[in-house]
Design goal:
The chain is an alpha/beta fold. The protein is built from six helices and five strands, in the order αβββααβαβαα. It is 41% helix and 21% strand.
Length: 173
């Protein structure tokens, strides 16, 4: 959902990250969001965010043997999640990510997955993602954080308008 990516990008911008969206690596793989934030001590915080927000999830997030819907045992879940993490956060994407920030290496990047509504299957997958070092955040957490006062930070991010509408909606009686 592209709108969710825009909201996450706005959230990163408000957290003082410089962002790039939909950076392509080889084989036409795409990274949803990369962010770089420079701290006062000149250290750089680097984040790679993948976003998958669904209102009514019916199957698995990670494909296994070409399927998103059939039953899986625990080993198949782990295998599907591992393949997904490799495809999204490692291999070609890690090379392209490091070219984006040439002084970084693979271990310098925080990896974050943003999700929407969950079913029991996806909850099981998220547990395995955490085991692989992926941080997990819901789009709800992002939206709530966007509603916090920002000391009048004004951005030109695409997600700003929808973020403002959500804030207005939540303030209405």
């Amino acid at each position: 959902m592209l709108l969710a990516e825009d909201l996450v990008q706005e959230w990163l911008i408000r957290k003082k990250y410089f962002t790039v969206k939909n950076l392509k690596s080889t084989n036409n793989k795409e990274m949803d969001l990369l962010g770089v934030k420079f701290e006062e001590n000149r250290e750089a915080n680097l984040i790679h965010v993948e976003v998958s927000v669904h209102h009514n999830p019916i199957g698995w997030l990670c494909k296994f043997n070409g399927s998103f819907t059939r039953d899986r045992n625990e080993q198949e879940i782990k295998s599907a999640v591992n393949s997904w993490v490799v495809r999204k956060f490692k291999e070609d994407n890690a090379v392209a990510r490091n070219q984006f920030s040439p002084h970084a290496n693979s271990n310098d990047w925080e990896m974050l997955f943003v999700h929407g509504n969950l079913n029991d299957k996806i909850r099981r997958e998220l547990e395995h993602m955490k085991d692989l070092g992926i941080k997990i955040k819901s789009i709800r957490e992002i939206i709530l954080d966007l509603q916090e006062p920002t000391n009048n930070i004004r951005t030109g991010g695409i997600g700003k308008d929808i973020s403002d509408l959500i804030t207005i909606y939540s303030d209405l009686e």
